[in-house]
Hints:
Radius of gyration: 27 Å
Helix content: 55-70%
Order of helices and strands: HHHHHHHH
Strand content: under 5%
Distance between the termini: 90 Å
Number of strands: 0
CATH class of the largest domain: Mainly Alpha
Low-confidence stretches: none
Structural class: mainly alpha
Number of helices: 8
Amino acid sequence: MNDRIEHTILNNLFFNEDFTRKAIPFLKETYFPKRDEKILFSEVSKFLHTYNNLPTKETILIELNNRKDLNETEYKDVKDLVASISQEDTDLKWLLDTTEKFCKDRAVHNAVLEGITILEGKDKTRTPESLPSLLSDALGVSFDKHVGHDYIEDAEKDLIGTILKKKDIHLIYLISIELQKVVYQVRL
Length: 188
């Protein structure tokens, strides 16, 4: 057992499909402060996006073995990290809430560091005017998918609403025809 949320997140990316499907769109390699965790997350993320399935420790070790950009120490550190991965019984709601907070905190942390780099003039591509949007993006990190419109998930609800509106329009049309008949009859 490890007392770092980063390790708990990595554990669950191997064994908890519900968590992985909900969290992976929001997790970024830059959120992991340790190099071995960044490398492992990168490999897990690549596997998930390529195969749309949870990785095993063995598949990740094979992928790590194929990498040419790791020195011996890095390879050993990541291999040890993979060996420490184990299935944990973690409450899904707590895990998602804590991971969301982790993502927000790391996004803000990274934005502040990028802001310092910009203010010191070390970033030649951005100016201090980009700071508000940088921080705004970081503060906007959220697992809430209901911001905006989800065309797939909301399709049934939208279809029912459209059908009801069409029924209402049809009903109004029928009532107006009947009213026209009554008005016509009254005039005669």
